[in-house]
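User: Can you help me understand a structure? I only have the sequence.
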Amino acid sequence: MHNGQFCVKDKMDATTLTRNVAILERGGFASINPGRDKRERCVAITQKGKDRLKHALPLWQQAQEDRVARIGADKFERLLSGPQEVSRKA
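Assistant: Let's start by predicting it. Here is the structure, written out as tokens:
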């Protein structure tokens, strides 16, 4: 999937995506390779990125569970859906 498709799918500005991927590449968490033409680049997660994700994911999941326990599942879902609803109406 190229940046444009990713941006449309996830409602992310292409400039933001490019900047964030560059940060991941500088950190060694992702690699950027040429695509089929000069406009396309392929992004892949590196082993360092996989290792970091493996470490971080359980921490992120625990943080989500803690937040649900603190504010309740209904309020948590509204917090998550609010920005998506605003984006759809914009």
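Now, to help you interpret it: The longest strand covers residues 30-34. Residues 36 and 86 are 35 Å apart (CA to CA). Let me know which part you'd like to focus on.
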